[in-house]
Amino acid sequence: MSTVLVERVRPGIDLVTLNRPDRLNAITHELVTDLLAAFDRIEADSTSRVVILTGAGRGFCAGLDVKEAHSIEATEDMGPVQSMMTSQKRWWNRFLPRMRSLPQPIIAAVNGPAAGGGFVLSLGADIRLASASASFHGALIKMGVSGVEFGLGWVLPRIVGMSRAAEIVLTSRRVDAEEAREIGMVSRVVPDGTVVDAAIDLAEEICANTPFGVWMTKNLLWSSMESSLEAAIELETRTQILALLTEDQKEQRLSLAEGRPPRYVLR
Fold first, then answer.
1. What 3-state DSSP class applies to 226?
2. At what angle do helices 152-160 and 162-171 cross, to 10 degrees?
């Protein structure tokens, strides 16, 4: 059984489900491989407009599967273990850059606990919706190591601010869904069992806009996080000019004037 399932749930909307419910969708090398492969297939599909990422069962993702890590330690001496763990962490470190580079916006439908690497995985999405029972937990500092991994130290302060980010990771406390909404970590909290449906509704709103406009909006939002104000404005201006030259932009204006759904041609 695949550790990652991909399903087209509406025209242009792909639901990606982490599929290890018996382990709270904990991260293994196989899951990483399957998830990155799913992103590759989705990027190559011009009919895919928005991605929803969720977990099977009662959790979003419990982070690193310690059972797999312990099995490595039990069968190898420390030299190979250290080498293997370094290699695997380098592999896992591809999560955030890959999610950022995906042209399609990603909505995380956080349906339960998101801990450790699962916390980071949720933050790699462009939008996060949470079920009432969802929680977020960066647990590693309690294990005697750094409290940030996989890009958490880069992305979390940009979402909630440095002071809140430092408190969360230095104490390793859990953030429940309602607090996550209050501090801007998630956009919305919905009743348990409805978070994927809420994400689908939101994805349909996004799909009503032009593919080029959506793609470049995601691209520019992420790029602007690393650029100066002047550079961001320059990129935005060039993008607007390019957008005005597309057939889909003309179709969107025409469909609004005629009161009908747009018929995009992806150019």
1. coil
2. 130
Confidence of residue 174 (pLDDT cuts 50, 70, 90): very high
Q: What pLDDT, on a 0 to 100 scale, did the predictor assign at position 7? A: 98
Residue 43 exposed, middle or buried by CB count within 10 Å (0-12, 13-18, 19+): middle
Say if residues 79 and 87 touch (Cβ distance below 8 Å).
no
Length of the chain equals: 267
**Is 250 found in the same domain as 182?**
no
Kindly state whether residues 111 and 240 are assigned to the same domain. no
Domain that residue 48 falls in: 4-206
Q: Which residue has the tokens 């806009």?
A: 209
- For residues 201, 255, 102, 28, the Cα torsion angle rounded to the nearest 10 degrees is 20
Residue 263 lies in a domain: no
* Contact status, residue 20 vs residue 34, Cβ threshold 8 Å: no
Whole-angstrom distance between the N-terminal and C-terminal Cα of the chain? 38
Residue at 98: amino acid letter: R
**58 and 162 together in one domain:** yes
Residue 131 shares a structural domain with residue 244: no
Please check whether residues 69 and 164 belong to one and the same domain: yes
Domain count for the chain: 2
Does the reported pTM lie above 0.85? Answer: yes
Residue 130 phi, psi dihedral angles, 5° rounding:
-130, 145
- Looking at 93-161, list the stretches that DSSP marks H as alpha helix, in order from N- to C-terminal side: 95-101, 117-123, 152-160
In a domain, 264, yes or no: no
- Contact, 52 vs 89, CB < 8 A? no
Where do we find the tokens 């250290």? 82
CA dist list (Å): 112 to 1, 128, 151, 191, 215: 22, 12, 21, 11, 29
